[in-house]
Specification:
This protein is an alpha/beta fold. It has two domains: 164 residues, Rossmann fold (3-Layer(aba) Sandwich), CATH 3.40.50.2020; 141 residues, Rossmann fold, CATH 3.40.50.2020. The chain is 30% helix and 26% strand. The chain is built from eight helices and 14 strands.
């Protein structure tokens, strides 16, 4: 019988974990999570979790492999401490882009991570906007996938931009972009692009839909190096868009991303805090929306045995 709700965190995003606890009105669970001088990670749970309903919050974000190992060791520590039920709360599922064999002799790392999380002791997974929906099927435990669609679309509803068109950054994100366009009651356009090998560069081919003389809002699940973003912005301006905005759930912002965004004519980039953004990566045209209340409400519903899906109805 699961009892009292407990929330713990690793070092990947303690601010988000604290925000979730503030929403739930509970203190953050006490634990030690640190690295020895030999780079071995150590976790110690500092309070009783026997038969408790426990949530371990940790995005698999930079440094990705350290964050992943912290998560796995946390789950193992909680399992060995006899937690009643353990939910891995992974706002950003790292390695999610390696979700299929699209070349000879390559791994399906997203499946490997799923196996590792399960073996480590998780009884269920709570995540946000997976890169590919089939990742849910990689798990043999229940998966609740939340979406930041409503948080992001509500922000742009508040801006009340006239003559707006929602633009999918590629065909793969078109379904999510269509749902976004429906929420804002706007038309949809799609950028057709082709990625060049395994390098972080994409070649934009053409724009499907009308964008001339309109405010364009680019939609993607994550912004990594921002190469696709700046290429898409340039293509939209060339096609006659008056202003270009962009939004995504996961602000990975690796490599030259911030410099590219700063040099781009994009009006505003709106993201959520599934991944922490250090001060060095903040920019005046980047807006960060909190996802703590969304995750907090989902945790409350999972703990209380209520429907998570009803949050989006």
């Amino acid at each position: 019988m699961v009892d009292e709700l407990k929330v713990f965190t690793g070092n990947a995003h303690p601010a988000l974990a604290q925000g979730i606890c503030d929403y739930l009105g509970i203190p953050l669970g006490k634990s030690e999570v640190f690295e020895f001088s030999n780079e071995n990670i150590f976790v110690r749970v500092l309070e009783n979790v026997r038969e408790r309903d426990v949530f371990a919050i940790q995005p698999i974000s930079s440094p990705v492999n350290k964050s992943l190992m912290e998560l796995l060791i946390m789950l193992d520590a909680l399992r060995r401490a006899s937690a009643g039920r353990i939910t891995a709360v992974v706002p950003y599922y790292g390695y999610g882009r390696t979700d299929k064999k699209d070349q000879p002799r390559v791994p399906i790392t997203a499946r490997l991570i799923a196996d590792m999380i399960t073996v480590a002791g998780a009884n269920r997974l709570l995540t946000v906007d997976l890169h590919a929906g089939q990742i849910q099927g990689f798990f043999t435990i229940p998966v609740d996938e939340l979406t930041a669609l409503y948080i992001l679309s509500s922000y742009f509803e508040g801006k009340a931009l006239e003559n707006l068109v929602v633009v999918a950054t590629d065909i793969g994100i078109s379904k999510r972009a269509r749902d976004f366009a429906e929420r804002l009651d706007t038309p949809l356009a799609i950028i057709e692009k082709r990625r060049v090998g395994n390098i972080d560069r994409a070649e934009t081919l053409n724009i499907i839909g009308e964008v001339a003389g309109m405010h364009a809002l680019l939609i993607d699940d994550e912004i990594d190096t921002a190469g696709s973003l700046v290429t898409a912005v340039a293509a939209l301006e060339e096609a006659g868009a008056t202003e270009v905005y962009a939004c995504c759930t996961h602000p990975v912002f690796s490599g030259p991303a911030i410099e590219r965004i700063a040099a781009s004519p994009v009006k505003e980039v709106v993201v959520t805090d599934t991944i922490p953004i250090p001060e060095s990566k903040k920019n005046e045209n980047i807006t960060v929306l909190s996802i703590a209340s969304l995750l907090g409400e989902a945790i409350h519903r999972i703990h209380a045995g209520l429907s998570v899906g009803a949050m989006f109805e």
